[in-house]
Amino acid sequence: MVGLKEELLKSIWHAFTALDLDRSGKVSKSQLKASAGVLSHNLCTVLNVPHDPVALEEHFRDDDEGPVSNQGYMPYLNKFILEKVQGNFDKVEFNRMCWTLCAKKNLSKSPLLISDEDAFKVWVIFNFLSEDKYPLIIVPEEIEYLLKKITEAMGAGWQQEQFDHYKIALNTSREGLSAWELIDLIGSGQFSKGMDRQTVSMAINEVFNELILDVLKQGYMLKKGHKRKNWMERWFVLKPNIISYYVSEDLKDKKGDIILDGNCCVEALPDRDGKKCLFLIKCLDKTFEISASDKKKKQEWIQAIQTTVNLLRAGSPPPHKEARQRRKELRQKLLAEQEELERQMKELQAANENKQKELEAVRKQLEAAAARAAEEEKKRLQTQVELQDRFSLELEREKMVRQKMEEQVAQKSSELEQYLQRVRELEEMYKQLQEALEDEKQARQDEETVRKLQARLLEEESAKRAELEKWHLQQQQTIQMTEAEKQELETQRIIKEQALQVAMQQLKQLELERKEALEQYEEVKKKLETAANNTKSWKDKVAHHEGLIRLIEPGSKNPHLITNWGTAAFTEAELEERQKSWKGKKAISE
């Protein structure tokens, strides 16, 4: 239905654009309503669609402001007419009605070699072959196709070179021809020279029947009747889904139809009953026997009918419509490729222009750089001469400076040698100082060992003294006991006194060991003082060498207070207090 609607729109567009326009190129409201009413009524009549004048009046209301273009009619046309079309109408009658409305205004007044009827058929063919865009035009490829078909129908040879010249002239001015320009082209006889009007008219009619009426083949043949079984000559017309047969080729007296579908078939029959070139058309409900005039016609009809049945089985359109669709698709493909090529050409052209601009800019830059280089070369030569003169002066001055520097280097070398000698002496002194420090460190370690031994002896002496005091207290407690126990206590006292004497002897031994430890401590102390004196002498020697090395000095040499509780366990005041307390307790016990 979309293809049918598009075909109807083309004819209606011609009819509607033929309406009288005002100076602005638009139709006034009153003219539009009147003309649209007449056109709508005629369209509804030929298309077998009910006419609705109320809808038309409502569509073009009087409250609209200003004139309305012909586009205002299209919504009404689509909604109230074209959407209701079912296909049960006479296409020729529809096209003739639209032709009547537009031909008088647009058809050329100059005499043509074709009749008005032929011009009408050319106009209908134009609507079939034209592009699907408005205003309608037929492109050169379709013009060539149509003129070839007409030339073949006339039995003449196709003049390709003549058409190529015409095509070149046409392409330089516009994309294609309008319907009226196509009629003028065919009516001028430019491509049908030597042919009479009747031959041209017959050729146009044949092409019209094929392209518009979908006549795939037509001609006289004999048909066998179903009731009386007699043979009658009939004019057969083959279309995509039907074979109609008439009394004569004027198509006025139709005798019947042979409905074709995918289940039909056609078979050749042997000659019989005095009839030759027989073939059979089998349908679901009937079988038709037909006799062609000769074997060639018989084969042509069998092949045409079989091709039509095959197309019905495949659901394909008629060959001329399929060919037109392929040509359109090819043109669209070529147009897309051409547009893509033009786009690429524009991009290349733009890129080329950019490159040209870049090259021009580079050329200018090179020229400017060359000018700058020449100027710089001139300055360089001038500068070179000046530098040569200056270099000579600088060279003489450099020689004098070099001599002075050599003298200074010799002096610095001597000073460096003296400095290195002093460094070596200092390194030697540093090594000796390290050895003295090692000796001092060893002496301190020996002193620490003696101090620990002395502390251990003092701890043992303290423990013995504590034990003696404990025994003394027990002895005092024993004396205070009763006389009955005195003897026993006396015995124990004697035993304890003996033990005390033994402890006193041990204490004396510990005292001797403590004195020996003190003597060792004094000896170590003397060694430490000797090492300190040696260190001091080395320090004095180092001071004479500009203070490059600072000696590590030993710690404080103050004597440590040693008691039976350990090294520096009590101060002297605390020790005296404890001695007084001990003497008081001893006096009490005695």
UniProtKB/TrEMBL annotation:
One of its GO terms (molecular function) is DNA binding. Residues 7-42 form the EF-hand domain. Residues 214-310 form the PH domain. Residues 320-541 form a coiled coil. InterPro entries: EF-hand-dom_pair (IPR011992), EF-hand_SWAP70_N (IPR057836), EF_hand_dom (IPR002048), PH-like_dom_sf (IPR011993), PH_domain (IPR001849), PH_SWAP70 (IPR057837). It is found in: Cell membrane; Cell projection, Lamellipodium; Cytoplasm; Nucleus. CDD domains: PH_SWAP-70 (cd13273). It holds the Pfam family EF-hand_SWAP70_N. Keywords: Cell membrane, Cell projection, Coiled coil, Cytoplasm, DNA-binding, Membrane, Nucleus, Phosphoprotein. GO terms for cellular component: cytoplasm; lamellipodium; nucleus; plasma membrane. PROSITE patterns: EF_HAND_2 (PS50222), PH_DOMAIN (PS50003). Phosphatidylinositol 3,4,5-trisphosphate-dependent guanine nucleotide exchange factor (GEF) which, independently of RAS, transduces signals from tyrosine kinase receptors to RAC. It also mediates signaling of membrane ruffling. Regulates the actin cytoskeleton as an effector or adapter protein in response to agonist stimulated phosphatidylinositol (3,4)-bisphosphate production and cell protrusion. The SWAP complex consists of NPM1, NCL, PARP1 and SWAP70. This is Switch-associated protein 70. It comes from Mionectes macconnelli (McConnell's flycatcher). The gene is Swap70.
